[in-house]
Amino acid sequence: MLANIDTILFKDIDEPGLNTREVYERRGGYEMLRKALKMEPGEVLDEMLASGVRGRGGAGFAMGRKMSFIPKGTMDKYLVCNADESEPGTFKDRELMQKNPHLLIEGIIIGAYCIGATRSFIFIRGEYDYVADILDAAVAEARAAGYLGENILGSDHTIDLVVHRGAGAYICGEETALLDSLEGKRGNPRLKPPFPAVQGLYQGPTLINNVESLMNVPVILNMGGAEFAKIGTETSTGTKLVSISGQVKYPGNYEIVLGTKTRDILFDLAGGPLDGRTFKAWFPGGSSSPVMPLTEEVLEMPYDFDSIAKAGSMLGSGAIIVFDDSTSIVDVCYKTAHFYRHESCGKCSPCREGCNWTEKMLVRIKNGDATPMDLDIIESVCSQIMGNCLCVLGDAMAMPVSSMIKHFRPEFEAYIEAKREEAGFGVSIPQVNRGAHAGPGPLLSPAQAA
Amino acid sequence: MAIDPTKIKRYDHGSRVPGWDESADLTKDPAVVPDPATTYVPEPVREAIEVLMGKYPDVRSAAIPAMKIVQREHGWLSPQAMEQAACVLRLTPAYLVAVASFYDMFELKPKGKNDVYVCTNISCSLLGADGVYARMKDEMEGDPDFNVRAFECLGACEIAPMASVNGVYVGPLTEDDCAQIREDLKEGREVLPDKQLAKRKAASKHWKR
Fold this sequence. Notes:
The structure holds 2 protein chains of 2 kinds. Chain A has helices spanning 21-26, 31-38, 41-51, 63-68, 92-99, 101-115, 129-144, 175-182, 211-223, 225-228, 262-269, 296-299, 305-310, 329-343, 349-367, 373-385, 393-423, 446-449, and strands at residues 78-83, 119-124, 160-165, 206-210, 239-246, 252-257, 260-261, 279-283, 292-293, 302-303, 319-324. Chain A is α/β, with parallel strands linked by helices. In chain A, the strands form 3 sheets. In chain A, strands 6-5-11-8-9 form a 5-stranded mixed beta sheet, with helices on both faces. In chain A, strands 3-2-1-4 form a 4-stranded parallel beta sheet, with helices on both faces. Chain B folds into 2 domains: 32-108, Arc Repressor Mutant, subunit A (Orthogonal Bundle); 114-200, Glutaredoxin. Helix content of chain B is 35%, strand content 9%. Chain B has a 4-stranded mixed beta sheet with strand order 2-1-3-4, covered by helices on one side. In chain B, helix 1 packs antiparallel against helix 2 (63-74) and helix 1 (43-53) crosses helix 3. The model of chain B has no long low-confidence stretch (mean pLDDT 90). Classes of the chains: A alpha/beta, B alpha+beta. The interface between A and B is large, with 71 and 52 residues. Chain B: Keywords: 2Fe-2S, Iron, Iron-sulfur, Metal-binding.
């Protein structure tokens, strides 16, 4: 097995009692909080900037820069930890929080100190009830030890932490929908700008970070930002948890150094395909990342933010879903579209209608009612969703669906013909109304129209 | 290809969209914030909600956790449950219903006591979740003790196909496990102790290579 795995966040993750303060402190826990309190908030921020660490939740935005957007001043500021891990295929945060909750709490306290927030929240998805219980217990321990509350560790800083349980909605992982949900409303995304760094929770400046990102904060302080930046590649620093699932031998969470070769991840860590099968394609970063066929070229690709972006997909949350030759691409496509149709909040029309119609067309394909023209219409619907929504949920449906059609069009067409014959509609496919004639095409901007 | 109109599922009111026939009774006045003097709220429920209210700068933030409490108490978000939550929170029942209807885990209709959520998302369905769900429904459907639902990704794809049984994650499931889950729940035992996720080690340690 690959040598340098599970080196930082997953190091000794299964040590018995690591979720208790006693064991965590014995292993040097909360030392970095003491160190941070002796530093100026600006110095903590400098370390974060120097580390070059990028957000681990999906967008991959530089974490230090995000922190630097929070205005200085004495207004009420908030830090929210996004633990609403709902992206299909992602399960890293669950294991991290379940096994090492104090590292997250320490990261949150240091982060809150850095930006000057007095209140912080962990927004955890409702389905993770047992993990939330573990977090609640850990927060109570931390409060009893004086790490949370008024004048933490004898300093003049007040930082409070509340574990807030959601109630089951994918969209609440989107940062502004999360804020609405945390304010006790329906989880609808907000129009941006203003961005949460300026006007977020309860109208105050708010920093929102993923669990894994915040857990890296004490690590970075311990190593020093410059030292941390030496791990991984130049633009993707540090380690990343990958959640490998699907049709592989050894699914699970592994901590890799960013820039590890895809082949090593899929064959060495995940054990390769199930017996007698071969890999077909994969989602490199959760179900909202464009699907890529697993060609030799892709297997040679380093697994980091920029290499994957260059190849036409995204690292996202690091959730790798692999499927093999026994799986029909149409089934995967339908499952994906069905999920996003169900989770679309309905606030803006391209996503609400687009996801709905895409799913309906895929149902038609499965029922044998469709013609290959429907593929063109799906592509045209997807192209009109992308970039036209309040949040990225619509894009998250459009990207994988259109990429599947792009890469596996012959398989879709063969499937359609086979199903038509099965349903008794015959195979005569009209060749008119295809390609450029299939739909209204992308919308023109006012400038183009004029 | 012609679509047979008689095959399209329609609701009593002729629409294909559910819910439109459940319109509000417009002859009634809208429900106001329930009067604490006349609304009965069990003491533990009131206390739990008041603790929640103290945690947030805005009381509405406590709405979702408070509804979780009353749902646990009443089994579902019955009108009475909503009234109790609304009374303590000082919000209207309409506000709470509007919020609750957004979220998957709130039940606005009566449901079975034991929640069995079977994940049928991509990773799980690649490994046979649809079969597990069908079998689970066969075993439990119609039994008022169970609430079987196909759920979106529950975040435990390493044990796919999996289910969350009253919040306990179990997997990888085979279709034969469904009967065992039913038995365990009926007897009040721990559900599939060997397959619980909480007892599983990190992947690099779990798999014997």
